[in-house]
Design a protein that fits this description.
316 residues; mainly alpha; 80% helix; cell membrane
Amino acid sequence: MRKLLLLALVGLGAQLVDGSLGMAYGVTSTTLLLAIGTNPAAASATVHLAEIGTTLVSGLSHWRFGNVDWKVVLKIGVPGAVGAFAGATFLSSISTETAAPLMAIILLTLGLYVFLRFTFQGLPKGQLGKPLRKRFLAPLGVVAGFVDSTGGGGWGPVGTPAILASGRLEPRKTIGSIDTSEFLVAIAASIGFIIGIGSENIDFGWVAALLIGGVIAAPIAAWLVRHIPPRVLGAAVGGVIILTNSRSLLRSDWIDASDGVRYSIYAVIYVAWAAALVYAFSQYRRNRDEEQQIIAEAEAAAAAGETPDEKASTPA
């Protein structure tokens, strides 16, 4: 009973972070399951089965608060489901240990870009509201879905920073669209795992505990992401990506840093992250009216089927 309660609390906390920042549910939940001795395939299967429910509720909540771009959901979600099914089906014969450090470097680079861009430049202005093309979203979805299944998490860490880095979709809609499209990924991955390892290797009590916690947190997170300033949210997301992937890289066989080195680097990251959040919030307050106007113009242009540039060039 104590273990189920702990899993429910982990599910609640993980979904609160995931729904607010667009990542971390799978990584957090899978890490705990691996720590208590669950094999990788069963751990990932458990998390993805729970995510069918949490992502459904999260998607509906984000839609209710206006955080979803349905074109993005379809363009990235369907390819993501294909990648997730492939990753789940072949997890037992595919090792991601060698690729993990390389993936951490890629994500760390994206995280640094997002972190610096939002902290010091605020909401990207030049590209906001322009459409995200299928030729960008489809390959991104396949890769993110595959990593998500084989690593027990990765849909948000891969998809969220890549879309944020494009500067074409504001943070809350990036997070809402990624969370909503993950419903398709979770279904495909779960089917792949059941085919690959069978349902007898999955503890459905653990699935239910993670699900209950996540369902409680999903509407709260969807409300939070709408009220957190975009500049602060971007800096927060960037910090999560940097911290998570720095940890993966420092623990990898490529570096294998000592405890002292790792903790020193973590301390520097935490201090820099806190300072960046304070700075981003102060700059947001100074430029609040301008950023709100940019978002309003982008939303109006999207509703009219135009880019902001097209809207500006249309005669009155």
